[in-house]
Amino acid sequence: MIGYYMSLALRSLRRTPILSALMVAAIAVGVGAAMTTLTLNYMMSRNALEAKDDVLYAVQLDGWDPHEAADNPSEMPWQVTYKDATSLLRSDIPTHQVAMHRWGGPISLENSEIRPFTADGRVTSRDFFALFGIPFLYGNTWEKEADTSPVKQIVLSQATNEKLFGGENSVGRTVNFNGAPFTVVGVTKNWNPSPKVHDLNNGHFNDSAEIFIPFGLHRNFEIYPWGNTNGWKNEDIKSYEDRLGSESVWLQYWVQLDTPQQVEKYREYLTGFISEQKEQGRFPRPLKFGLSHPSEWLLLNEVVDGDDRMLSWLSLAFLLVCLVNAVALLLAKFLRKAPEAGVRRALGASRNAIFSQHLVESACIGFAGGLFGILLTLGGLTLIRHLQQGYLDRIASMDWMMMLSAIGLAIFASLLAGLYPAWRISRTNPSIYLKTQ
């Protein structure tokens, strides 16, 4: 029966092409506007670490100003100090644990025609790759002692390896980074999560690191982070050692805790650590720390903020306006077919059959509106990418799920718009139109 109703619907649409085009356009414009903002919000809120969401935790320690909490929803600094990070790394409770921050510098090859370029890097402990599930194309990470000793080893991203070595296995080769020779120990496969859950302090949607170097190189290179460095007190910093021993927060810290028992033990460990620091005159605020799953971390950091959500609601309100117009057009179209419906009723068709027939016609209009709505959405996302000059290239895009959602939204909207017109035409009194035939 549905096939028959669809055949009637297509004939009806062909009989009134202009009116049908207007209805399809009304649905398409509303769906295009709504799906553009909904797609952006969906892509921005995706959890790139969803596969390990239940075992990964971002660590926060509340060692802030005793008179004023940190200015964010968690009321704790997002990052930790260097001295706290090095202390936490000594714990043997987590399966994996990572202290890290952004850094970079010029990288080149000796006796090569390849011009030096600035590589965006990450100074990190060796567990970074295992904790975040980053696969290796060649080699592996550095040994554990490199987290505390100045070992000049480096891991390249696949893209960087392509630039420097044409994609060949470069393990054991030497590159010059920041004026010093580094031995390549590994090459990671392409890994570019968006949003960048592991480091939301340096741009939610920036590209991931091009190179990775061991955590133990801080003193050797007197590394200052590329990124946010915050503090709550005035400190007399005259040397690099003063910087490392200061209360400035500039490192991200993550742990992997695979069992509830590990989580409980680690909570007890952090409680003991903070209590010990309090005895030394640090951590003046009430004892507090944070362990947030990646999904919670995205919400806390407001990757999708209130303005983005408001824009989505406004776009849905615009879709509603388009639906009101579609209702008026459908009503006009269906009432023009009242004589035809009257004859069908007189020949034995039930009110439900008339109602279903016209609702199927509304769904066909919605399907066509959804297809054109996808094209408008793609155009809107292209415009956004152009306006953002590459910043949202990996976000302002539409996957198959969102395309299917667009069609589903269009069909749902058209069915909603068609309910009243279909009900009106199903209530047609056949006797009125039989007299006129």
Task: Walk me through what this model shows.
The protein is 48% helix and 14% strand. The protein is an alpha+beta fold. α1 crosses α12, α10 runs parallel beside α13 and α11 packs across α14. The longest helix is centred in the C-terminal third of the chain and has 37 residues, at 351-387. The model has no long low-confidence stretch (mean pLDDT 85).
State mean pLDDT (0 to 100 scale): 85
Number of helices: 14
What is the rounded distance between the termini?
Answer: 27 Å
Main structural class: alpha+beta
Radius of gyration: 30 Å
Quaternary state of the chains? single chain
Q: What percentage of residues falls in helices of 4 or more residues?
A: 40-55%
Largest sheet: 6 strands, mixed, barrel
Low-confidence stretches: none
What is the 3D form?
elongated
Q: What is the strand content?
A: 5-15%
Q: What is the tally of beta strands?
A: 10
The H-and-E topology, N to C, reads as: HHEHEEHEEHEEEHHEHEHHHHHH
Instruction: Describe the strand arrangement of the main beta sheet, using strand numbers.
Output: 2-3-8-5-7-6
